[in-house]
Amino acid sequence: MDKLIIKGGMPLIGKIKVSNAKNATLPILAACLLTDKPCQINQVPMLQDIKTMIGLLKALGVQVNFKNSTVDICAGHNMTLEAPYDIVRKMRASYYVLGPLLARFHKAKVYLPGGCSIGPRPIDLHIKGMESLGAQMNIEHGFIDAQTDKLQGANILLEGNFGPSVGATANVMMAATLAQGTTTIIGAALEPEIVDLGNFLKAMGAQIQGLGSSQISITGVKQLNGTEWTPIPDRIEAGTFACVAVASQGIIEIENCEPKHLEAVVLTLKEMSCSITHAENSIIVKTNGRPKPVSITTAPYPGFPTDLQAQFMAALTIADGTSHITEKIFKSRFLHALELNRMGADIAIDDNKAIINGKEKLSGAKVMASDLRASAALVIAGLCAEGETEISRIYHLDRGYESLEQKLTGLGAKIERVASRN
Ligand code: EPZ
After folding, report:
1. What pLDDT does 279 receive?
2. Is the pLDDT confidence value at 105 over 80?
3. Among 121, 63, 137, 64, CA closest to 88
4. H/E run at residue 56
């Protein structure tokens, strides 16, 4: 297993380019199952989760060619309708094949995704959505066996206890594109990745209205066509680089980002005393000494994203005062806090709340990554800590950040990947 060695403590300055969004690309790749015509997805990030999704599609019988950041994909007629456990267990987003398979082939067998280190991740809303469209969903022996004679449009309330579900909105929207009649999702997710998926489906010929609002209507069509698409830039990667600027007290121009997807993040950065300059496809984050402390509550889009909670916590460990973070989406997503404390941070966790007493400095230490965004938080902490930080289990990082060490090296970071036997 590889490790990252970081020698921190210096301001990082320069330009860094964001890749396109993993969380938009994953459902878009699954949506290609909805047609037997070829699709081409451009500027796809080379990430482990993307390779897992491609592996899953290939296991289903889809022809996929991933070369030079372009995915050529064609889901013909000779398909296997079972998503194998060995692939599903690696990535929760594997359940994105459920909606498209049911819509086009009226049948799907998908192993249940397990738990994960960010807390319980139920799939009741996915099941409710498919049942509302007329699918029979049998759950036994650890898999969902779904079938239907035909999917029929319906009004579906998808909001759960923690607000709208990104995954369930995507799955139901994909399934409804080929259902008979009109489906209205009430309590739909507003995330830009959902809008991007919806626009991709529209480019395939789907009839969808209300994208970006909490009510999305989909009128089923008989078939969809192939199309070509470039997913949106990754707003979470952009936010991660903003935290690198804050923690290292540097100046970073973040290229290939969509400022309007980052409004809550930019407002928070300004409260932390950063100066932000917007251009059409980039933002410049300039820090002015140690950040000011802030209070953050995670929320569905357009609120502050849970996927940036860990990275902001890392940046706030050196704030000039006490910050508060309340995690409302995945209530126990705090494993990074204990590792940050090993680097000299002062973070106390009480249920879904974190209190971060800012320190002047962190000090490098050996730490272990527990999930994708927690890994990014440790990298940020390592970049601002004095001395050497060694981060193990960085395979989590490779699931969602493309060429992170190379990109950070371009800003002057001293960061190196080393192979390790344990
Ligand atoms: C997506 O996960 C993202 N994953 C996550 O990104 C992100 O953290 C999350 O949305 C929230 O923004 C992908 O896009 C692949 P949800 P998803 O369904 O769709 C509850 C990352 O780091 N819920 O919107 O699985 C759920 O427990 C990650 O890139 C139910 O109760 O999240 C949570 O509290 C990890 N029942 C809330 O809804 C359900 O059936 C939101 O989850 C489904 C979800």
Report:
1. 84
2. yes
3. 121
4. helix 48-59
115 lines ligand 1 (CB under 6 A): no
* Number of domains within the chain: 2
**322-326 and 346-350 beta bridge pairing:** unpaired
Which three-class secondary structure state does DSSP give residue 87? helix
Continuous segment of H or E residues that includes residue 414: strand 414-419
Pocket perturbation via mutation, ligand 1, pick of 165, 194, 298 by most ligand atoms within 8 A of CB = 165
Name the domain boundary from 200, 229, 258.
229
Q: Could you identify the atom of ligand 1 that is nearest to the CA of residue 170?
A: 19
For residue 174, report the distance from its CA to the centre of ligand 1, in Å.
17
Percent of the chain residues past pLDDT 90, beyond the cut:
90
**Average pLDDT for residues 238-267, to the nearest whole number?**
97
| Domain stop point among 191, 212, 229 | 229
Q: Do residue 99 and residue 188 come from a single domain?
A: yes
**pLDDT at residue 236 is higher than 60:** yes
Closest-CA residue, ligand 1 atom 7, reads 307
Q: Is the dihedral of CA 184, 185, 190, 195 positive or negative?
A: negative
Residue with tokens 């290292």: 248
Residue 255 has pLDDT above 70, yes or no: yes
Q: How far is the CA of 391 from the centre of ligand 1 (A)?
A: 26
Residue 115 predicted with pLDDT over 60: no
418 C-beta neighbours (distance < 10 Å), count = 9
Question: For residue 339, which of 380, 367, 319 has the smallest C-alpha distance?
Answer: 367
Name the catalytic one among 32, 39, 74, 116: 116
Domain that holds residue 115: 22-229
Which of 240, 329, 331, 332 maximizes ligand 1 atoms within 8 Å of its Cβ, making it the mutation to test the pocket? 329
Rounded distance, CA 133 to CA 152, Å? Answer: 5
Query: 274 catalytic, yes or no?
Result: no
